[in-house]
Design brief:
about 700 residues, mainly beta, Lipocalin, Immunoglobulin-like, 3 domains, six-stranded parallel beta sheet, 3 helices, elongated
Length: about 700
């Protein structure tokens, strides 16, 4: 049983060296997690790849992928050609650990051999540019390099299919850049060696053969008609191969789907399916020697060099990953015969709506490589609190950024704050329409002031100077930037939203090799001025040990103030990119989460405020028309009697703080209530209640 020995904290400096050599030891910190929510393990995703070898292993119901280009967010190749083997079981991608090393390559071909229950891979271009003539097989666990007595010449862009009538692999064509050699030969593989066939005619016979033929070739086995079907979308020709001879199939209509497409055979509908290409983005089917252009209601992101397989367990065609020259496609789509449907992507939405407290009690947390995790807010817009009994591994990216300011188009749309963060202010409407230059202030204790004179930029959101402390108690997000002032005939820009807030606590270790982002949002330009940038939010990591080489970023953007990052652990080898500079100590005793303080505005001008309020300018929570003083009632829970309370009003004429600086404090009475009586200017605005007090653990 773990014992909470807080006396160990006083011995920390002397024990750090010992902790480094006992990294597996369970140390005294406890996150308090009950583990009731089980593990947080979103589906793993294969990082972006294109030009990879792939096949569907029908025995093990797995898609198998080997190597291919890796690219960054801008489409530039960033991590070379990886010698990695990935599998997909219909739900999760998994990186396989293999005993045998296979060199990285692109444009190799792979097909599944159901007789020998193995995938067969041939050819391709190695990472150093060498063209390969290697034959490899994958048995579901490891790779084996074959040594056939006879083999096709080294080549890339080769096409292969499984001949189910004769139980053999068929290989056609390929390209070798040295001397610009373009093959139009046909080979078969029987599990032991290759045999070259001698058909009287071949696709691409008669001259004009080029690299582009092979780059645009697609080949599958049509099991209904016992033949291979090969089409070339660049030159709009289709051939069939009956095991002995190639025959060009005449036709008036041929597909034109763009470069480097992919093709599968659908055994349910007994037709060939040609997937979307990189430009036309069309889907075609082939049946009875006729091509038909389909008109699906949903069209996936266009791409080339992607994977396209028939998934026998799902009874659907699956298209995954790829690239179109500027956009990455790290997602999976399914073709069901009439339409495309999204299966999954490299993003995961963590839904907060079922947990008003924002507190989750996990066993372990594992955010896999390649995953982007974002959040759906709960109604009170609480920060995120993840507690874990076991290890936490963040290898993907977690985003709690505030939104960028949208265009000020009279819609009233503002930049939303991240989880537990605050919205940006709305830029002023042009003076010749509204009669004012003043933009709305950003939300939050450090919300930026709205611009007040013609063309003045909105103030930036603030964090460190307005609230919070180095312990990040309370856990709270960043403040929004103020709306920019208008000009005589142009709207002001909207302020950026404040970054969100997250605390991750583990009774064991936290390792961040990916990224956690709680940045403020950028403002928009409205023609009259810019809005202000949102401030950064808060990132707090608490565990026995906190390490990794990833990123923790709680900065503001476009001038927005920096948020806070805090790392608490007995051992903190966190050699990462952390901005702003974190505060770091051994774990401290946090207040009980069950007694979280609560402060809310309960009544305005005699009208009850529905809890939690939305705070949306386009649909006010309270509408009133009092011309005199308005009473605003604030109620509290778990906040000491006598605590001073401040009311912050963002109005069409600026930001009002009550009580004013130097004014008589308004404090919570014995029932936890406080009442303000004030004049509220006409027009749309927001009310926020703030209290600051000491917490004794």
């Amino acid at each position: 049983m773990k014992t909470k020995l807080y006396t160990v904290l006083r011995m920390l400096p002397a024990l750090l060296g010992a902790f480094q050599s006992l990294s597996a030891q369970d140390l005294p910190y406890s996150s308090g997690s009950t583990g009731a929510d089980g593990p947080l393990t979103p589906p793993a995703y294969m990082p972006h790849r294109d030009g990879f070898a792939y096949a569907y292993d029908a025995t093990r119901n797995r898609t198998v992928v080997f190597s291919g280009h890796g690219r960054g967010e801008t489409g530039v190749q960033t991590d070379g050609i990886k010698p990695e083997t990935w599998t997909f079981d219909g739900t999760r991608w998994a990186l396989q650990t293999t005993a045998t090393f296979v060199s990285a390559r692109t444009a190799a071909a792979m097909v599944f051999d159901p007789v020998r229950n193995e995938c067969v891979m041939f050819g391709g271009t190695r990472a150093d540019g060498v063209i390969l003539d290697e034959t490899w097989t994958w048995n579901g666990t490891d790779w084996t390099k074959k040594t056939p007595a006879v083999s096709p010449e080294a080549r890339t862009l080769v096409k292969m299919a499984w001949d189910s009538q004769n139980n053999r692999v068929i290989l056609f064509g390929g390209h070798h850049p040295t001397g610009n050699v373009n093959y139009n030969d046909t080979w078969t593989w029987n599990g032991v060696t290759w045999t070259k066939l001698s058909p009287t005619t071949n696709p691409h016979d008669g001259g004009g053969i080029s690299y582009y033929y092979h780059d645009h070739d697609c080949m599958v086995w049509d099991s209904q008609n016992n033949r291979a079907v090969l089409t070339n979308v660049a030159f709009q020709k289709t051939w069939s191969f009956n095991g002995t001879a190639w025959t060009q199939i005449p036709g008036i209509i041929h597909p034109a789907v763009g470069s480097v497409p992919r093709m599968i055979y659908d055994p349910v509908r007994e037709e060939v399916v040609l997937g979307p290409g990189s430009s036309q983005n069309q889907t075609w089917t082939y049946r009875n020697d006729e091509w038909t252009l389909r008109s699906p209601a949903t069209v996936p992101q266009h791409r080339y060099s992607y994977g396209f397989i028939w998934d026998g367990s799902m009874q659907k065609a699956l298209m995954f990953n790829g690239f179109n020259g500027s956009q990455l496609a790290t997602n999976t789509w399914a073709w069901g015969g009439t339409d495309w449907a999204f299966v999954q992507g490299n993003s995961y939405l963590f839904d907060m709506t079922a947990r008003a407290s924002g507190i989750w009690n996990f066993t372990n947390i594992d955010i896999p490589t390649g995953l982007t995790l974002t959040f759906r807010k709960n109604a009170p817009n609480t920060p995120v609190t993840w507690l874990a009994t076991q290890n936490v591994s963040i290898r993907g990216n977690i985003f709690l950024d505030g939104s960028d300011g949208p265009p000020n188009d009279f819609s009233g749309a503002v930049a939303n704050g991240g989880l537990g963060g605050f919205d940006g202010g709305l830029g002023a409407i042009r003076f010749d329409v509204s009669g004012t230059y003043i933009g709305a202030g950003g939300q939050g204790p450090g919300g930026g002031e709205g611009g007040t004179t013609a063309g003045q930029q909105g103030g930036h959101g603030d964090y460190n100077g307005s609230y919070g402390n180095t312990l990040i108690q309370p856990l709270i997000g960043g403040s929004g930037g103020g709306g920019g002032a208008s000009s005589d005939n142009s709207n002001g820009g909207n302020g950026g939203g404040g970054g969100g807030a997250i605390m991750i606590a583990s009774s064991r270790d936290i390792t961040v090799d990916g990224g956690i982002y709680a940045r403020g949002g950028n403002p928009s330009w409205g023609g009259g001025s810019y809005g202000g940038g949102g401030s950064g939010g808060a990132i707090k990591l608490v565990a026995d040990r906190v390490g990794g080489t990833g990123t923790a970023d709680a900065n503001g953007r476009s001038g927005g103030g920096a948020g806070r990052v805090r790392v608490e652990g007995f051992y903190r080898p966190f050699a990462s990119e952390v901005t702003p500079m974190p505060s770091s100590t051994a774990p401290t005793l946090a207040p009980a989460l069950a007694n979280t303080p609560l402060l809310m505005i309960a009544n305005v001008a005699g009208e009850a405020v529905v809890q939690p309020p939305s705070g949306a300018l386009t649909s006010p929570d309270v509408v009133f028309s009092n011309t005199g003083a308005v009473a605003v009632q604030v109620v509290s829970t778990n906040i000491p009697v006598g605590t001073p309370v401040q009311l912050r009003l963002t109005t069409p004429t600026g930001v009002i703080l009550l009580p004013a600086v130097g004014g008589t404090p308004v404090t919570l009475d014995a029932t936890g209530n406080a009442v303000f009586n004030t004049i509220i200017p006409r027009g749309q605005g927001t009310l926020q209640a703030l209290a600051e007090f000491n917490v004794t653990p």
